[in-house]
Sequence to fold (358 residues):
Amino acid sequence: MKKFSTAALLFAFVAGISILPAVHAQTPAKARCAFLPDAPDQHVVVRGDTLWGISGHFLQNAWCWPQVWGMNREQIRNPHWIYPGQIVYFDRAAGRLRLGTPTGGGSSDTIKMSPHMRVEGLGREAISAIPAEEIAPFLSQPLIIEEDGLKDAPHIVAVQEGHVNLGRNDLAYVRGDLKDGTSFQAFRPGKALNDPVTGKVIAYEAVYLGSLKLERAGKVENEAHTFRVVESKEEMGVGDRLVAMPITPVLNYVPHAPEGDVNARIVSIYGGVANAGQNQIVTINQGSDDHMEVGNVLQLYRFGKTIADPLDAKKAVKLPDEQYGTLFVFRIFKHISYALIMQVRDTVEVGDIARSPE
Fold:
């Protein structure tokens, strides 16, 4: 496939033109990326749209967007930009989608494909791949840790005089190596996460308590650092651990199928509930060590029951696993990942299967 630089790709999206080669969505290898029989001719992008939602207007599987555009692996790993006011339209003859902008003074159906410069709000107005507000708290607050992962983290050794627990604007006294950091989040070791297959503990989910800002660093080796609580989600106190505030990540992930076959299981549903639905967060038992990537899309399955043959009770018959939904992987740890439930026809339960799309 002809290659384009990331800069050229970004300019093309921002300028309202398409430089990507045509990819027919109906070839055998791309059968899962077929267009809907009643797909519209075009869609005008508006605020609040997501890449996933726009794709759902045209494609049987919304996550197939990169394949229909012909994005290569390098381009998939980088954000791309689509803005309110642009038009995504269906080129039925080529079997692909294109991006354009409406012309002024003519028919509302006219698409202008000539280059133009866009200078306002670069990046800030771009639509995201999935609902950003659903995953934003999970990009920094809930924390997956390996065994003993918080053992050497700075910790609160005392609280402001007259207080038992800490709230907003209270002072905390902290011991430990800050590594020149000034903004921290407080966590408390939480529940163990067990692999549904092996039963072994693969990680722990720490409880996010709030954030603190350094006011005065200790002057000598055994002197505590002084912090002030900036945000308090839950009461924090002596023994709670501090982790440096992470850099705000890019939210515009591009959905794509994993490079290899994935056969993961649901480890937990965030919040400790028994089952979950659309737009809730789950963990799966595969992570960076298993070659998972941010943006990977997985299909949800429930194990098919094993029943007795009604005409021969001595013989058991396993029913097929039932595919009932889709997951979007958005944050990855070593042995475990967070995923957003995108579309489901049934409730999600711990132990359900998450596989590569077929």
The first helix runs from residue 6 to 15. The two ends are 24 Å apart (CA to CA).
